[in-house]
Write a structure and sequence with these properties.
About 50% of the residues lie in helices and about 15% in strands. It is of the alpha/beta class. The chain folds into two domains: about 120 residues, P-loop containing nucleotide triphosphate hydrolases (Rossmann fold); about 60 residues, no CATH class. The strands form two sheets. It has a five-stranded parallel sheet with strand order 2-5-1-6-7, sandwiched between helices. A two-stranded antiparallel sheet has the order 3-4. β3 and β4 form a beta hairpin. α2 crosses α5. The longest helix is centred in the middle third of the chain and has 25 residues. It is globular.
Amino acid sequence: MITIGLTGSIGMGKSTVAAMFADQGVPVFDADAAVHRLQGPGGALIPAIEAAFPGTTGPDGVDRARLGAAVFGNDAAMQRLEAIVHPAVGAERAAFLEANAVAPLVVFDIPLLFETGGEQRVDKIVVVSAAHDVQRDRVLARPGQSPDRFAAILARQTPDSEKRARADFVIATDVPIEETRSAVDAVIACLLRSRGE
């Protein structure tokens, strides 16, 4: 099995590219989706998050706005939250690998791959990238986003230029979608060839 770390800064189109891998039959582990499950209604992490950050959970799980307000811009609080979340996501990741043990390729969709040292746990790295103005427009079109919030998020992420330099493959999303799809297909073909398939 070849494990692929799929990453890209906010607004780069990573979810779209992950869906393209899935469409081609490559199993995809979505770290964000795992977090949403763990923090959703009845989620396994709700008690620990409520204990660490009182008033940030309810019947619908984590109140993302309240939890965000409690940790955003506070490194110690963010580290406390990550210490709760990361081990649980690691367990989900292990279960995913076990369930897909016979797959030739699997994708780990990890937004903060480099920031968390995740590049050491995958065989190949695919970075999704777009021009800065395209990225900015996409992010600012999202509900609740502002230029200041966008800047703060970028400040916590490894710069796009560095991600591209450290990637095995770069997939552009500021091109016609069929070009992006062709690039995904080319990555899959290249990696299967490297396995002799």
